[in-house]
Amino acid sequence: MFKKILIANRGEIALRIIRTCKEMGIPTVAVYSTADKDSLHIRFADEAVCIGPAPSSESYLKMTNIIAAAEITGADAIHPGYGFLSENAKFSQICRDNGIKFIGATPEQIIAMGDKSNAKATMKKAGVPTIPGSDGLIDNIDEAIKLAKKIGYPVIIKATAGGGGRGMREIWKEEDFERHWEAAKSEAGAAFGNDGLYLEKFIEEPHHIEVQIAGDQYGKVCHLSERDCSIQRRHQKLIEETPSPFIDEEIRHKMGEAAKAAAQIINYEGVGTIEFLVDKHKNFYFMEMNTRIQVEHAITEEVIDRDLIKEQIKIAAGDPITGKDYYPTKHSMECRINAEDPYNNFRPNPGKIETLHKPGGHGVRVDTHIYAGYTIPPNYDSMIAKLIVTAQTRQECILKMERALGEFVIEGVQTTIPLHLQILADENFRKGNFTTAFMNDFKIK
């Protein structure tokens, strides 16, 4: 096992990893920017190193500073959490070159799945269903228009290096194609430094369902069932749950097997996620792979009673997995609590938290790094907490979540708690009758 683990992240996920390391008897090193000098992950780690000023480009994304912090503290492993450098092949390679274990995917695996057009070609080889569209990147707009006619409108343009909905455009008719193409190309180039685009058939009434997988260094792979992430705004997830209220046991099994095939073809090592779009007829298609732990991993932990961070660390240390597949025995749901104003176009609302009361009770979990008196910095993502509830049934879960949200008091900044309560009260949500378009026409009261 590792002698010391450096956590190359901040906030909730850094604190989450520190807790598991302490339970495993592994000393930890926190890194932080000057904006995070009062963060809880610094207080609870065994050591802490400042790695730069507030901008993430000068701190949490500064690979040389993080490697230096690992070397001066004697850390022999780095856990990247999610976001930042968690899916950066270059950083994974630098860790390898410096004799430090990257607790995540290998550089080769990140490269194989990081480029979406290459990932799609790999999935075809594995026999995993993929959305009809271009074979790789499209060189010019004339070629794209010709393909769109062939597969039929609506279609969607995607940036090969994309994420969070950037470089993505839906096109419903040919006369709109050129302006959307140019806009997507420009946005992708600005956001990712890569303006490569590919084209797919747009799946109408889609559900966003992902399958949690794990693979070890010896070629063994298993799946840990699915999560439904269809409640999202502008491709940013708001509420996740497991099991999905949409799919049945037959589809669950087929998706699990497809996810394992996807992981096996790249000899995946670690904990990751295969994301699918599922249409109204329950046909499912590979969308992308996340070669890291995800924000919503907690709900899977709750229904299978496994610590996924611990599993990540053990796999990275060379322990084999059993290869057993897991299926939910309960229902779990997560609401992402953001410091945003839902009544003002979700404008970020950083500032000082004057009062904090976290909900409790059986089946209630709060993953957060905030506390009363803490000042949320304006430099990073606005998620400040994850509220997770678990119960025997989905209906019990919804009632528990409503109760827990009602107890969750955060004063001093505006949050998305009122929005979550309105979503939970919606009749279609309660019936499980929703798609990724749910928030498009949702009126916030």
- As a percent range, the share of helical residues equals 25-40%
User: What is the radius of gyration?
Assistant: 21 Å
Assembly level: single chain
Query: What is the H level of CATH, i.e. the homologous superfamily of the largest domain?
Result: ATP-grasp fold, B domain
CATH architectural name of the largest domain = 2-Layer Sandwich
User: Average pLDDT, to the nearest integer?
Assistant: 95
Q: Ranges with pLDDT <50 over ≥5 residues? A: none
Number of domains: 3
The number of helices is: 14
Structural class: alpha+beta
Q: What name does CATH use for the topology of the largest domain?
A: D-amino Acid Aminotransferase, Chain A, domain 1
At the first level of CATH, the class of the largest domain is Alpha Beta
Question: What report would you give on this structure?
Answer:
The protein is α+β, with helices and mostly antiparallel strands. The protein has three domains: 5-103, Rossmann fold; 132-201, 2-Layer Sandwich (Dna Ligase, domain 1), CATH 3.30.1490.20; 207-441, D-amino Acid Aminotransferase, Chain A, domain 1, CATH 3.30.470.20. It is 33% helix and 26% strand. It has 14 helices and 22 strands. It has helices spanning 11-23, 40-44, 63-73, 89-97, 107-114, 116-126, 141-151, 177-192, 249-265, 297-304, 308-316, 394-407, 417-425, 427-431; strands spanning 5-7, 28-33, 47-52, 77-79, 101-102, 155-159, 169-171, 197-201, 207-215, 221-233, 236-242, 270-278, 284-290, 331-338, 340-341, 347-348, 351-352, 355-357, 364-368, 375-376, 383-391, 409-411. The strands form six sheets. The chain has an eight-stranded antiparallel sheet with strand order 13-12-9-10-11-14-21-19, with helices on both faces. Strands 3-2-1-4-5 form a five-stranded parallel sheet. A three-stranded antiparallel sheet has the order 7-6-8, with helices on one face. Helix 4 packs antiparallel against helix 5 (107-114), helix 6 crosses helix 9 and helix 12 (394-407) packs antiparallel against helix 13. The termini are far apart. 46% of the residues are buried.
